[in-house]
Design goal:
The chain has 325 residues and is an alpha/beta fold. 46% of the residues lie in helices and 15% in strands. The chain is globular and about 60 Å long.
Length: 325
């Protein structure tokens, strides 16, 4: 365990995360923490699953989106909000906007999972489709910003979003205060940044582990090289983990994250099945990534008393895609 003093971060501080918790509490679920003795035995540790797959809109993303939307003043809110997203953040922003009674525009890649497209539509989001590249997403969003005057709520490169995402770890540590480690998935880095800030601020000795598909290992490569690496060209079933870090999230992760662990596609699939069987709930591939290192014994301690918190980030499983992959 690392007990080093954490330097001040360029991201939101613990107080911002506490304020975010107060702001969003009336609008979201306080998700349960689940345990499973068979999964403990399989991992050789004590596992505590923070079930954001049971959250409103089906993922942790509602936390950051709601904090950002309800932080806006009335004039900015009246012009609506806009984002680009492969799915979960777009759905969350559409729902948060609906809760505040404002418009939401969402730029989505043409190959986004159908279940996530339907979710954005169900919450009243106005979708613009684009080619499945980061450049196309950003260009389409920039064009919409010029025509709508809306406020951009970036999926992860936004302190309001990062603070909101950090509330999941805050809740987890209030319920299970003596964790040795927290595992969270990493893509653009918003959830892992918020998790690391909240957890390290409360308990500097806690280990923070980012979990990433081996087929989308840009965060691991970035932290190893010391600069942001390009996305891997390979396919991963974890469609929500294909984004790359921003300079902002990269800086936070370099300060506060202890390790990045990689998992294979078969390990992701097996982890989904194990969670469904033993926790009796659905988790999408991106959420299962956070559980995979523990379930496949990449993490070990001096004894079976190692206490690991795992953030199951989402449950928006595209059943049709799962059948064809």
């Amino acid at each position: 365990m690392s007990g080093a003093t954490i330097p001040p971060s360029t991201g939101p501080n613990l107080q911002a995360i506490i304020e975010a918790q107060r702001r969003i509490a009336p609008h979201i679920e306080k998700t349960p923490v689940m345990i499973s003795y068979p999964l403990d035995n399989l991992s050789g540790a004590l596992l505590f699953f923070k079930c954001e797959n049971l959250q409103l809109s089906g993922s942790f993303k509602i936390r950051g989106a709601t904090n950002a939307v309800f932080s806006l003043n009335e004039a900015d809110a009246a012009r609506g909000v806009l984002t680009h997203s492969s799915g979960n953040h777009g759905a969350a922003l559409a729902l948060a906007a609906q809760l505040r009674g404002i418009r939401a525009w969402v730029v989505m890649p043409r190959n986004a999972p159908k279940v996530k497209i339907r979710a954005v539509e169900a919450y009243g989001g106005e979708i613009t489709f684009c080619e499945p590249t980061q450049e196309a997403r950003e260009a389409a969003a920039a064009q919409l910003l010029r025509t709508t005057g809306a406020t951009l709520i970036h999926p992860y490169d936004d302190d309001r979003v990062i603070a909101g995402q950090g509330t999941a770890a805050l809740e987890l540590l209030v319920e299970i205060p003596d964790l040795d480690m927290i595992c969270a998935p990493v893509s653009g880095g918003g959830l892992l940044s918020g998790t690391a800030i909240a957890a390290k601020s409360l308990r500097p000795e806690i280990m923070i582990v980012g979990c990433e598909p081996a087929n989308a290992d840009d965060a691991a490569r970035s932290l190893a090289s010391g600069h942001i690496e390009a996305a891997a060209p390979k396919f991963t079933i974890a469609d929500g983990l294909r984004a790359t870090l921003s300079p902002h999230t990269f800086a936070i992760l370099r300060e506060r994250v202890d390790r990045i662990l990689l998992v294979t596609e078969p390990e992701i699939t097996e982890s989904m099945q194990l969670i469904t069987e033993h926790l009796r709930c659905t988790v999408e591939p991106s959420g299962a990534v956070a559980a995979s290192p523990a379930l496949h014994r990449q993490i070990s301690g001096d004894s079976e008393d190692l206490r690991i918190g795992i953030i199951l980030s989402g449950g928006n499983l595209d059943a049709e895609a799962a059948r064809t992959n």
